[in-house]
């Protein structure tokens, strides 16, 4: 049984959502072992009720569930996507540690998220409707982070996200996008040039099956992956009801470093962020300061190295 098929089939069991999948994967991270579990072993997983156990045992025998999972993997292969499977080599280590890791992640691009090269990975996120100041700052931070050897992560949304990606690419750096649709579906269309460049030099990720059109409900979910891949998250302009605040909440839950770009206290795009400063987030003035605050220090020569806290 192919490892990715295990999680894709289990995901199709009625009543087995993200939280129960996460409990199963944490308890039995080896997909092959998870596939062989009996009823008593499944019942011992935290939060598993008898109906959950029966649903998992039944879906294992379902020819239709298996065909659907196999078709999903075949679409990924035809699209040239790499398949990253929880519990196997190549799956991003930081992502595996978050409360709700995606069982399967689809990737375009050469970046190796689990390569352990010690480079900082920093998310830069913000509103889709920024001010000129916010756009300029996001692009500057993306460029500075890339110049210092960091990987820049964002969601390729209009506004702050695309500015951060653009800044990193302008410096010849590595930047990564996490999409709300399939990794093979460029959205928004006006970002096609950025999308192509990231496929060539960085990465495009999605937990959605190949060919999935972007849907509003997918974007809040993908935000946990943006913060999960990263060592820290920088917030650049967000209103009080912005989806950026969801990323910030995930970063806090995942114990990631959180930074806020200071803006005018009279601006509606500052109000959504300052409560994080009150709760302990740092201020982001420039990339070097952010990386130093995160514990990344410049070596005498070459790229940054990580100095563990404590």
Structural class, judged by helices and strands?
A: alpha/beta
Q: What ranges have pLDDT less than 50 throughout 5 or more consecutive residues? A: none
Overall, the morphology is globular
- Placed side by side, the strands forming the largest sheet appear as 1-2-6-5-4-3-7-8-9
**Largest sheet data:** 9 strands, mixed
Tell me how many strands there are: 11
Explain this structure to me?
It contains 15 helices and 11 strands. The strands form 2 sheets. A 9-stranded mixed β-sheet has the order 1-2-6-5-4-3-7-8-9, with helices on both faces. Helix content is 44%, strand content 14%. The chain has 310 residues and is of the alpha/beta class.
Could you write a compact summary of the structure shown?
The protein has 310 residues and is α/β, with parallel strands linked by helices. It contains 15 helices and eleven strands. It has helices at 3-11, 18-27, 31-35, 39-43, 50-60, 63-78, 93-96, 132-147, 160-170, 192-201, 218-229, 244-253, 268-271, 274-278, 287-294, and strands spanning 82-85, 104-108, 121-126, 151-154, 175-178, 203-206, 232-236, 257-260, 282-283, 296-298, 304-306.
Give the topology, please:
Elements: H1 3-11, H2 18-27, H3 31-35, H4 39-43, H5 50-60, H6 63-78, E1 82-85, H7 93-96, E2 104-108, E3 121-126, H8 132-147, E4 151-154, H9 160-170, E5 175-178, H10 192-201, E6 203-206, H11 218-229, E7 232-236, H12 244-253, E8 257-260, H13 268-271, H14 274-278, E9 282-283, H15 287-294, E10 296-298, E11 304-306
Parallel strand pairs: 3-4, 3-7, 4-5, 5-6, 7-8, 8-9
Antiparallel strand pairs: 1-2, 2-6, 10-11
């Amino acid at each position: 049984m192919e490892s990715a098929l295990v999680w894709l089939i289990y995901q199709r069991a009625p009543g087995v959502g993200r939280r129960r999948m996460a409990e199963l994967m944490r308890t039995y991270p080896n997909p092959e072992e998870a596939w062989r579990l009996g009823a008593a072993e499944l019942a011992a997983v935290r939060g598993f009720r008898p109906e959950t156990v029966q649903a998992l045992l039944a879906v294992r025998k379902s020819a239709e569930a298996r065909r659907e999972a196999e078709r999903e993997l075949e679409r990924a292969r035809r699209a040239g996507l790499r398949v990253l499977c929880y519990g196997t080599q190549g799956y991003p280590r930081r992502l595996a540690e978050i409360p709700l890791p995606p069982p399967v992640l689809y990737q375009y691009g050469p970046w190796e998220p689990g390569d352990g090269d010690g480079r900082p990975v920093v998310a830069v996120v913000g509103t889709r409707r920024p001010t000129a100041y916010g756009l300029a700052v996001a692009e500057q931070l993306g460029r500075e982070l890339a110049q210092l050897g960091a990987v820049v992560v964002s969601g390729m949304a209009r506004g702050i996200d695309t500015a951060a990606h653009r800044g990193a690419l302008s410096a010849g750096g590595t930047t990564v996008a996490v999409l709300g649709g399939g990794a093979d579906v460029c959205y928004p269309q006006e970002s096609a040039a950025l999308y192509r460049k990231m496929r060539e030099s960085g990465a495009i990720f999605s937990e959605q099956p190949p060919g999935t059109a972007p849907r509003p409900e997918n974007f809040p979910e993908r935000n946990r992956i943006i913060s999960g891949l990263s060592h820290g998250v920088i917030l650049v302009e967000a209103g009080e009801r912005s989806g950026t605040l969801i990323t910030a909440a995930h970063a806090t839950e995942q114990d990631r470093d959180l930074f806020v770009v200071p803006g005018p206290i009279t601006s509606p795009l500052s109000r959504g962020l300052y409560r994080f400063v009150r709760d302990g987030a740092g201020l982001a003035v420039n990339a070097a300061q952010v990386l130093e605050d995160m514990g990344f220090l410049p070596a005498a020569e070459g790229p940054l190295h990580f100095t563990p806290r404590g």
